[in-house]
Structures are given as structure tokens and as C-alpha cells.
Design a protein that fits this description.
About 65% of the residues lie in helices and about 0% in strands. By secondary structure, it is an all-alpha fold. Helix 1 runs antiparallel to helix 2 and helix 2 packs antiparallel against helix 4.
């Protein structure tokens, strides 16, 4: 959605490089970034390009990949949070 560009950097930051690459590829198919804040306008634009974009194949790859984003995020948080002990 609206955070598609910022999310790429966040995914790289936690070590989710495969997912970040997929999102980068999807972002390249979007004719105008950042995406509109208005949800209806955003969906309309994405629907217009869905016929010629790689979104479907990228979505399939996303669900087929084995990158554990939850574990990567948890590891990132453990590395970056100060110890309270």
C-alpha cells in the first residue's frame, strides 16, 4: 500500500532480502510512486495495471518463499533493543 517504498528498506534492515527484492520488483511496475493515500484511488490504479504487471507471479513467489520474516524481525529486535537487565 502507501508504505510500499519504505517497506523495502525496512525489510532489508531486518535481513529479509528475498522479500525486499520481490517488493522492489512490484514497485517497479507501479506507474506512480508513492502510491496515493486514498485507498480507492490506489486500488483503481493497481487494477488498471494488473493485466500487464508481474504482481500475480510476484505474489506467488512471495507465498512460496521460505524466508521467515517473523524470526528475522525478532532477531533484529533482539539485536537492536537495549538490555533491561
Amino acid at each position: 500500500g502507501v508504505l510500499a517504498q519504505a517497506t523495502v528498506g525496512a525489510l532489508h534492515e531486518i535481513g529479509a532480502h528475498e522479500t525486499a527484492s520481490l517488493l522492489e520488483a512490484a514497485n517497479k511496475d507501479v506507474p506512480r510512486l508513492p502510491l496515493p493515500d486514498d485507498r480507492d484511488e490506489r486500488y483503481e490504479m493497481l487494477n488498471r495495471i494488473s493485466g500487464y504487471s508481474r504482481f500475480n507471479s510476484l505474489e506467488r513467489e512471495y507465498y512460496e518463499q521460505r524466508e521467515d520474516r517473523v524470526a528475522l524481525l525478532a532477531n533484529y529486535l533482539r539485536r537492536t533493543q537495549p538490555n533491561d537487565a
